Amino acid sequence: MAETVVAPWNLLQIAFIALYPASMSFTRMPSGMTLLALYVFLFLLCVPPIFIQLKLGNHEQRGIVGLLSTYFPIFKGVGIALLVHLFLTAVYMAPLISHYAMYAAISIIQEPYPWGLCGNAWNTPECVSKQQDDKLMTGLQQSKPDPLKEYASPESQFFNFEYLQLSDNIENISGFPVWQFNKTFENVGIPLTPIALVITWCLIFLFVAFGGRICGWILFILGPGFLSLMFVVMGYGYANLDRGPTNSFLQQLYSLNVEQLTDFSDTTDLITSWTEGFVLVMHSLPVWAAILPTMGKMTGTGKISRNISWLIVVLVYAVSLQLPQLTMAPYMGNLREMSPHMHYKNRSFSVPFTTMASAFHSLEIPHVYAFLFYLSLYIAGLMSLVLTVFTITDNVVDALTTSIDVFQNRRLCVNFFTAFVLMCLGVGAGILHTTKACWNVLHYTDGSVMYSQADFYYCNVVWIIPCHCVCAAEVWNCREGYNGYMGWLCHSHIICIFPLLFCFYNGYTTRIHWEEDTRYI
């Protein structure tokens, strides 16, 4: 009966659905040694669990909870905890994704860009726009500058003080931000950030509520849409902006310091680079999450799908990881050439909201390309949220339809109701993230998710090795190559323990930073 209710995704759909981790590269641009570490971890440590989880989900037609209930019932709670972790991640990522949609609307509604100039009500004396850059630096060269004084860009102050209207602490919520920079938004008279959050969750609900087949086709449409928008923005940048700064930026981004691999007198930078590569894989690719078994379940029961889907997921991730930074390279390179005294970071959420916003204004990029850029970010993030919520919904529906007889012939209704409940919970839990205290709420949420994630990963290390071995023995009818693969699998899990412990001990999180990431040096 399970085969009659599963909505299969074909390999082409899987290829486009696997694009969703690209949203992480907009805020984490791996470069040099970090990029090398990322690919080493990807191909040596991540391939075995990706392969076995997709294959098990495909063979058993079950999600993570169903697999654990079948082979290791004592660890069923670990599967449920992983679903809870996915939901917590969706709760605090949905407001962030909604900001992309709002920035897309802002960039197309108002001309010129509202974030590019100082002298507004929200700016401080430290604000320095591009027009003041040369004058400021001339003055600093002729006088003795204050080493403790930092100058902020108008884009960062617009985002912090007008768009988010950040409060001092988590106790000072002070309601929702109401914008005054545009007559259209001002005439609305109501806060728009919670409205954007509700719309995002409504879209997630509509995409998930009607089952796996509909969800798969919607993701299949969103994937090419994301690629098309990215290529349009990329094409304009490479065709119309100066190639010299672009090439210099790419050369600096992809430069590899080989001395770190040979000189062990100081390994701090080497350890930091490899840790950052591992953290990026850990947070972007669902190796230790509950998503892969559900993706395997959705691919159908064909032999080709079983044996190729894992390769598609790995290769698409490896390629799409570079797409966002290649798209932003012309803009960020020319911006740094135009404002050499301004320090722009290439990580955290300051990249889309400060660095790219500065590039669009300073380089006088047509508003339609800024709109397409932020819309592509929103689509990529929405794909990630949809797949996350679909994984939770599918596992819950499987549990309800197999344990309660009356639900067995009403799977679509159960799926619809479950998606609706998750939407309501997501809006209710995420509404605080749209208030003026959003930075503080996100800080505590990010930390709690990080610690719960570490706990779940350690639990996975306990159950995943014996579970995978037992399940693989059931899946493979012959033992040819089984021992070698199991050795690779066990070694990958054991090796992963050490960077996980190191990241947990040193407090590596998703590093959501809202503070000033742009300053004069």
Automatic annotation (TrEMBL):
Binding site for Na(+): S284, S384
InterPro entries according to UniProt: Na/ntran_symport, SNS_sf
Classification via SUPFAM superfamilies: SNF-like (SSF161070)
Listed transmembrane segments: 33-52, 64-88, 188-210, 217-239, 277-296, 308-332, 368-392, 412-432, 485-505
UniProt source species: Sinanodonta woodiana (Chinese pond mussel)
PANTHER family: BLOATED TUBULES, ISOFORM B-RELATED, SODIUM/CHLORIDE DEPENDENT TRANSPORTER
Subcellular location: Membrane
Membrane topology term: Multi-pass membrane protein
Any one annotated GO CC term: membrane
Keywords assigned: Disulfide bond, Membrane, Metal-binding, Sodium, Transmembrane, Transmembrane helix, Transport
PROSITE patterns according to UniProt: NA_NEUROTRAN_SYMP_3
Name of this chain's protein: Uncharacterized protein
Cystine crosslinks: C118-C127
